[in-house]
Protein: Fe2OG dioxygenase domain-containing protein
Organism: Lolium multiflorum
Amino acid sequence: MASSTAPESGRAALLKAFDDSRTGVRGLVESGVSTVPDLFVHPDPYASVPLAPPGVSIPVVDLSLPAPLAAAAAAEAARDWGFFYLVNHDALVPSDYPGKALAAVRAFHELPAPDRAAHYGRAMDSGVSYFSNVDLFRSPAASWRDTIQLGFGPTRCEPERIPPVCRSEIVDWEAHATAVARAMMLLLCEGLGLPEATLEEASCLDGKLMVCHYYPVCPEPDRTMGLVPHSDPGVLTVLAQDRVGGLQVKHTNQDGQSYWVDAEPVPGALVINVGDLLQIMSNDKYKSVEHRVVMNPGEEARVSVGIFFNPGKRGESVFYGPLPELATSENPPKYRSFTMSEFLGAFLKRDLASKALIEHFKL
Ligand SMILES: O=C(O)CCC(=O)C(=O)O
């Protein structure tokens, strides 16, 4: 992972000053920065892995297909790519969503600076926070991104703490995205030959964290990143993105070659991806893959809204690990079991770019 070019001595003070401004990266842009400040510089951010050859694209799962075919397509995509576009989900999502939620999130991030600053803070006591870079004080280089983060489970945020300009749209989208996640969990269980409610019964729909990202226009898009390469820690992610683009997924083909594939915005499609916990529960049948957000060189800020679904049951006597049906004598468990507090504790100690979370639990 890249390291910042800001000298270490002044870096802590610069980070604090940036955070104290309470207006995020959007605030830097509003103040007229014409270069990327050192704190945000990722040396050689796009060097390591090549881009995919033309014509390579993440798979599509069509919900209008008969359920067994849709389940087979979802399972194949989750196994080979860890990511897919979901299309024809109109039985679950009204036609004006997720567009309304994306527009409302944009409206919040484009409020005048003092109105945004009133919401700024990292504490999640009320279940709602607005900040720039969740790992600002842990990562070697900050990214060009601001976020509203909302907890919807197992404890539900206080709705009155959601900024009014996007409140009803965010609450509505959480319900629609949960319907999508339920349908995906059923298909993914079916694709593993498990009873279809297995993940839901393991409370995997009950822990929910929503992130409403805003990637401002950037004066030097080649010197920073919107989001560093990472995999999602939870079970499943449902992501809505606007038409700007920038999300890329790392894919390794059958010849062992890895490249970044653009997850270009597809009208009417949601992006679904497998998280680390589902890779573990499926005993590596499904995989959680790295993805990142590159800066777009255009004149339009990008907005995306992701919801991470996790187990809601978090007691010290509740353990997660490979599902017993998938860990047999022919296919022994590849991971040990753990409680959610151990899992989340291990996640929170790392910066986002770390790939070590899944390794931590490997047998
Ligand atoms: O903004 C995006 O497209 C991706 C967001 C993401 O990967 C995340 O929040 O973990």
